[in-house]
User: Which sequence fits this backbone?
């Protein structure tokens, strides 16, 4: 009797196993795909009801098979004659849904590659419905294609970038504030959308990510916070063993920042011929030709959700470089090396006597791209400031930075930023000021900089150091050429008594007789005309841009200028004072509108700069008469 029962049970189990095997697609019972040439199934041969297998990593580094039932072909989804294959995923994907990070997961029918999982339903759905980019579209990605897509996801493409006049202030700050204001708008959701490529921030605080999420959201980018930066990401050189990395189904990441902080975008490898790697099945940022480090990845877990499923993952060793970012995927070369900008940041918290209470040092590398590098410099500095934040309410931030470029040229930058009644916190204001310098370097229309390294020190002072020019006094308003005149200036700080400073100014021997002015002013007043002249030239070259930025006055000094009633011309990075009208007319005649001469009816000759360890604001004029 027991033998009969056992036989029945064994027979039932065998029947169940046979049924399960019949239901499983053939590709799921073969070994995982490897690098090398693979047979392709043309799009025309794919029919509804066919059984396929996708390969993707749910946890760790080893891909798992996922059954996919082909629903049909969606005509012209990418464009004319560019169809998408619609499939319904089974297996673990029923629970996880089509998750961010699955982009590029290869799909096979009878061992033949048909394409990469690249799209998902944009709204809630109980079904794991995916869109598959045909492999023919991905194989068309050309390593030598230098064209640049018009719809790239770059910060300067934001609508908010046009919200303010660039001459009126920090354009990157305007972008950030305007993006935050637009974040609540209701998005227009199409039926199928590219799977989000999670932009993973490792070593970044939640506050920093929240501050920049509106800007990233406006570009269609999902920011995800991860743990500490991966220790393997400290160099852009391919790690040993790169030759055997990034097999189909493996995690792959594009690296924007690596080191003590990292920013990476994760997806899945679709194809690897042993040299060239294809992934994602949709754009990363759609930048066209790029030179970005390419790394392996490790999936910690796949977060199940009908709303926003995502893989939680870390980028690991760099094994090559991405060379193309196109509408049908990304393409990289194993063993290739990308140039990155090494950045060193030192942040110090100072006591009232200027001794160092705490200090932290950060080292990381930044992806080189004319549109992305400025924003990455801005985000990384903003986050380093949040790591030392003892005096948030009453702090002043004092920055000194150096940007070294190939050929020996470079920038030496300094500024201060104090907290106050501002719409944006002082650290963010300082970070956008810093990023805007890189913006000006990279967005000149003649040539781009070759930056070799960047270093910056930021000191946090335990008080709000702002001082407004309140009043001034001159010993005698009646002077003669060659006289040395005593002057006093009075500044009102945020709190405390008036600051008084006395100095002497020499009246030039060759000054014209008549009425003149001694102007005491902040940096913005002195910089204004030169900045307008620089922006009036749409084709300012790199040396002129560097010269113009280096001429900018720092906001922790008070500038003393002698103003005469004679015209000044500002051309590119040059100031031409006291020009005769005839010379000025010749300069203005026949000049193109893209290189106009900016003029002022007065000439301000800077006499001295008085250092203050405060953010100096305002201006004051003293009238004098030269006999």
Assistant:
């Amino acid at each position: 009797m027991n033998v009969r029962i056992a036989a029945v049970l064994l027979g039932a189990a065998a029947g169940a196993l046979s049924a399960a095997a019949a239901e499983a697609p053939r590709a799921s019972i073969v070994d995982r795909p490897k690098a090398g040439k693979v047979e392709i199934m043309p799009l025309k041969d794919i029919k509804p009801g066919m059984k396929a297998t996708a390969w993707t990593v749910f946890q760790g580094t080893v891909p798992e098979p996922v059954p996919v039932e082909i629903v049909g072909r969606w005509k012209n989804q990418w464009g004319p004659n560019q169809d998408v294959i619609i499939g319904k995923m089974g297996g673990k994907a029923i629970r996880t849904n089509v998750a961010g990070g699955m982009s590029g997961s290869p799909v096979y029918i009878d061992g033949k590659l048909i394409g990469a999982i690249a799209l998902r339903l944009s709204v809630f759905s109980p079904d794991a419905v995916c869109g598959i980019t045909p492999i023919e579209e991905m194989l068309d990605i050309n390593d030598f294609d230098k064209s640049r897509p018009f719809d790239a996801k770059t910060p300067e493409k934001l609508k908010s970038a046009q919200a303010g006049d660039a001459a009126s202030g920090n354009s990157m700050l305007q972008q950030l504030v305007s993006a935050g204001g637009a974040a609540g708008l209701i998005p227009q959701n199409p039926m199928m959308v590219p799977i989000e490529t999670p932009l993973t921030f490792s070593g970044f605080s939640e506050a920093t990510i929240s501050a920049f999420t509106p800007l990233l959201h406006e570009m269609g980018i999902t920011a995800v916070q991860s743990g500490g930066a991966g220790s393997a990401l400290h160099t852009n050189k391919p790690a040993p063993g790169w030759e055997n990395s990034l097999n189909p189904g493996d995690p792959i990441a594009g690296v924007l920042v690596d080191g003590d902080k990292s920013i990476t975008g994760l997806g899945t490898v679709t194809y690897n011929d042993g040299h060239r790697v294809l992934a994602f099945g949709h754009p990363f940022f759609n930048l066209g030709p790029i030179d970005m480090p390419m790394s392996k990845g490790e999936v910690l877990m796949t977060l199940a959700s009908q709303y926003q499923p995502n893989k939680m993952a870390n980028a690991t060793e760099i094994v090559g470089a991405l060379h193309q970012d196109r509408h049908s995927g990304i393409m990289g070369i194993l063993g290739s090396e990308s140039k990155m900008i090494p950045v060193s940041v030192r942040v110090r918290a100072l006591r009232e006597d200027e001794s160092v209470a705490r200090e932290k040092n950060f080292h990381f590398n930044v992806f080189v791209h004319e549109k992305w590098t400025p924003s990455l410099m801005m985000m990384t500095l903003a986050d380093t400031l949040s790591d030392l934040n003892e005096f948030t309410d009453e702090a002043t931030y004092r920055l000194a930075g150096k940007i070294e470029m190939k050929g020996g040229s470079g920038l030496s930058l300094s500024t201060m930023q104090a907290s106050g009644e501002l719409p944006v916190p002082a650290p963010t204001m300082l970070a956008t000021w810093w990023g805007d310098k890189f913006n000006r370097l990279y967005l000149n229309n003649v040539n781009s900089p070759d930056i070799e390294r960047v270093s910056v020190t930021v000191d946090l002072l335990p008080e709000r150091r702002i001082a407004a020019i309140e009043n001034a006094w001159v010993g005698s308003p009646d002077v003669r050429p060659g006289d040395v005149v005593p002057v006093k200036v009075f500044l009102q700080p945020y709190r405390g008594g008036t600051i008084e400073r006395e100095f002497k100014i020499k009246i030039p021997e060759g000054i014209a007789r008549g009425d003149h002015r001694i102007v005491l002013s902040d940096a913005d007043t002195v910089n204004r005309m030169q900045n307008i002249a620089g922006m009036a030239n749409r084709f300012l070259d790199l040396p002129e841009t560097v010269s113009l930025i280096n001429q900018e006055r720092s906001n922790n000094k008070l500038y003393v200028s002698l103003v005469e009633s004679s015209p000044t011309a500002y051309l590119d990075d040059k100031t031409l004072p006291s020009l005769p009208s005839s010379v000025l007319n010749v300069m203005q005649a026949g000049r193109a509108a893209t290189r106009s001469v900016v003029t002022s009816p007065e000439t301000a000759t800077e006499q001295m700069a008085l250092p203050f360890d405060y953010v100096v604001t305002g201006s004051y004029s003293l009238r004098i008469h030269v006999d």
In short: Residues 58 and 598 are 61 Å apart (CA to CA). The mean pLDDT is 83.
